[in-house]
Design goal:
49% of the residues lie in helices and 13% in strands. It is α/β, with parallel strands linked by helices. The strands form two sheets. A five-stranded parallel sheet has the order 2-1-3-4-5, with helices on both faces. A five-stranded parallel sheet has the order 7-6-8-9-10, sandwiched between helices.
Length: 378
């Protein structure tokens, strides 16, 4: 891999003799077929110095039933690119190659093949989890980065495939925040949890238990529930029997909150502090939930969208300056913005737009950011 990539790098940098020397060294070796093709392309002179913009692929739903989602995401992508190109740290010129899947997930693999034929440095999209998994598996080169702004899960997608909206990470952040908040801010040490029977809910529970234990509290009761149930009496009663002072109730969407919230006091969880995630603060929930219930409800947000001087407020200022309109009250443009920013971290001059080098650069930056985030969060 290193030999083939070095030969390719020399060729792209305009050093044909060095490129040919390295390529000849590996021509007759037993190496991976992709690396073998790279070596042959170098020796045949097919890889030339980059003299134009670096292509970045984008596959969004710009027509069809998900067109508004695609348009919001594209606004964020365009905003990030505009900021990069006008900023002091811009590297190469970037060309976006935007393809429309017509809101048909099955078309993503075909469009991904079109972008791979153009040797794009990375791909932004798709918007759905199943499409992300299919795309990651069907890549002809696993070193090409795929970033989905909105897929709710990225487990099992393999290397260099990311989602910025992966639910397990969001629920873990919320579970950890509540696990610390109950004992450290409220002095409550007997805790319990109700969580949906899915990977996101279980991730939130694990983070809740770990944070509570580290803060000197104990999770004395935890029960999962099926989100599409009509009654939640059994899991609520099981949690009540543990006599908790505070209860984390995770819910994946506002509809689940509206279903489970009235049943908490009805089945006995009155006068307990209830903590939940961002779905509990959704406008639809606040409009329809009985006001009395909000007297003892706490919401942990995945992202702070209210404090001044945060990354969110800076993003909103940039958005409104660029488009001369109010930023939408949803996360979609922001997710497109961050997807583009993630790709841009890998497009420094030293990568020359090579997909493998771009992927390694993104991995290094992402790992450093995650470790710093965990330290700050702790």
């Amino acid at each position: 891999v290193l030999g083939a990539e070095l030969a390719r790098a020399y060729a792209l940098a305009g050093l044909p003799e060095d490129a040919a020397g390295v390529a000849r060294r590996w021509r007759d070796e037993d190496i991976d077929s992709q690396d073998s093709r790279t070596v042959e392309q170098v020796l045949d002179g097919d890889i030339q110095p980059a003299d134009g913009p670096i292509p970045v692929g984008v596959i969004l739903s710009l027509t069809g039933r998900f067109s508004q989602v695609g348009e919001d995401l594209y606004d964020g992508i365009s905003l990030a690119l505009a900021g990069y190109q006008s900023g002091p740290f811009s590297g190469q010129e970037i060309e976006l190659i935007v393809l429309d899947d017509g809101s048909e997930p099955a078309r993503y693999q075909e469009l991904l093949g079109d972008l791979e034929a153009l040797d794009v440095a990375a791909v932004i999209g798709p918007i759905r989890s199943e499409s992300l998994a299919d795309a990651a598996a069907s890549r002809t080169y696993a070193g090409r980065t795929i970033v989905s702004p909105t897929a709710s899960r990225d487990s099992g997608t393999g290397p260099n495939a990311y989602s910025l909206w992966e639910r397990g990470r969001r629920e873990s952040a919320i579970g950890g925040a509540l696990g610390r908040w109950f004992p450290e801010r409220m002095g409550l040490y007997r805790l319990a949890a109700l969580y949906p029977a899915d990977s996101g809910g279980r991730a939130g529970l694990r983070a809740f238990e770990t944070a509570a234990m580290e803060s000197g509290a104990a999770v004395v009761g935890a029960r999962e529930y099926e989100p599409d149930s009509t009654t939640f009496e059994q899991p609520i009663q099981a949690v009540l029997e543990s006599d908790p002072e505070g209860v984390m109730v995770l819910a994946g969407d506002p509809a689940t909150v509206l279903q489970i919230a009235p049943q908490l006091p009805y089945f006995g969880l009155r006068s307990r502090i209830i903590g939940g995630g961002e779905a509990w603060s959704d406008p639809a929930v606040l409009r329809r939930l009985e006001p009395a219930f909000s007297d003892y409800r706490v919401v942990a947000l995945f992202m702070d969208r209210s404090a001044e001087g945060t990354e969110w407020t800076r993003y909103v200022e940039d958005y409104e300056r660029e488009f001369q309109r109010l930023a939408p009250d949803n996360m979609l443009p922001a997710l497109g913005y961050d997807a583009m920013r993630l790709v841009l971290t890998g497009l420094g001059r030293e990568t020359l737009g090579r997909p493998g080098a771009v992927a390694r650069s993104i991995r290094a930056v992402s790992y450093t950011h995650l470790r710093a985030h965990e330290t700050a969060y702790t």
